[in-house]
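Quick log. Single chain, no ligands specified.
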Amino acid sequence: MPKFETRIAKTEEDLQAAQHLRYEVFIRELGGTGEMVDHAAGLERDRFDPHFDHLLLLDNARPGALRDRVVGVYRLLPDSRAAALGQYYSEDEYDLSVLKSSGRRLLELGRSCLHADYRGGEAMVVMWQALSAYIEERGIEVLFGVASFHGTDIDALAGPLSLLHARHLAPEDIRTRAQPAAFQPMDLIAEDQIDRVAAMRAVPALIKGYLKLGGFVGEGAFVDHAFNTIDICLVLDLSRLNEKQSRLYTRGG
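-> predicted structure:
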């Protein structure tokens, strides 16, 4: 029986436990890479890590060291921290001008992952509850961040990308857009030609979760060859959630 605990990383050991889980998921499982990846230590790191809050999910029923008990991670960057840093992580891939000029309180989410043994169950609910508390404490109004499809074959993902563009494109006032130099159109198949059941089946669970909550996608995708992914930008405007979606969000599922 899991014994879950959530907390923000405070120590170098906490941070390395998060980076180790990211290594297991993004590098070993999904085949990604990066300039600061430490294969010897089993850590997936980047230059942004020191500026983010790292939300950890621990299962204290698991034996072993801290890195063995961290089973979920979320990386969080409030707008105040982004101002000091000079950019959001997502800005390398997406033009965020429409969000940054809105005057609203923003939170960037990223590097979300769960240990393989904890997917599809209570763990994500517990993570969402902790995230909800973090957001409420800081008066956050809009959440955003990139989420990924595995692989870089656009043709193989034409169905789900087209479905997201057709059914879940963000309203103009919160519509981010892939950077011009790397803009990959998502409207690859006419809406009436999409196999909607197959397309939605191919959408990763994390993205489905945001859509269920009332999230939207930005315009255009970004092919990330280093991480072996195709990224989309997700945007969740908390003021647009209806009562049912608000309950889902605050309860985590």
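The first helix runs from residue 12 to 29.
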